Amino acid sequence: MGLFINIVCVYLATIGFGLLVNLPKRALNVSGIVSVSGWLVYFYINTYISGYIFANLFGTFTVGILSIFASRYKKMPVIIFNIPALVPLVPGGQAYQVMKSLATGNFILAKSNLIQVVFIAGAIASGFLFSEFLNQLYIRWRVNLANKKSSEK
């Protein structure tokens, strides 16, 4: 039951953020589905396989790939699906802990939390980078295949 509540909360948080940034209405539901899919990958990897860094990497990779598919399906820019779907993966709690630790003078804990935030941000950036790299490889492969077919005729 707890997993179902988390899924609903992730979906609603994504829809709410999409409404805040004036996402087109026809992109809200798909953006929520992309977000839930990325969060489920994050949750599974973080819980059963590895830690939060690889979980963020693969969760963001999933968001990136599904955003590409969603953008082709809806004929809209990829960023419309990327940004709201990223909301559940952003390390807001750790960033808050960094600021809280700095304010209370606990610099060792602040440094530890800051390192976590930097690694998570790097994993998020890498996940998007890998998904876009895979997309570009696919596009080049499709263009080369079309060129070979046209040159054979």
TrEMBL record:
Transmembrane segment boundaries: 5-21, 28-45, 51-69, 76-94, 114-134
Any Pfam family hit: ThrE_2
Signal peptide: none
Keyword Membrane: yes
Keywords: Cell inner membrane, Cell membrane, Membrane, Transmembrane, Transmembrane helix
Name the record gives this protein: Threonine/serine exporter
Organism: Apilactobacillus micheneri
Localisation per UniProt entry: Cell membrane
Domain Threonine/Serine exporter ThrE: 6-133
Protein topology in the membrane: Multi-pass membrane protein
Lineage per the UniProt record: Bacteria, Bacillati, Bacillota, Bacilli, Lactobacillales
Family: Belongs to the ThrE exporter (TC 2.A.79) family.
Organism superkingdom: Bacteria
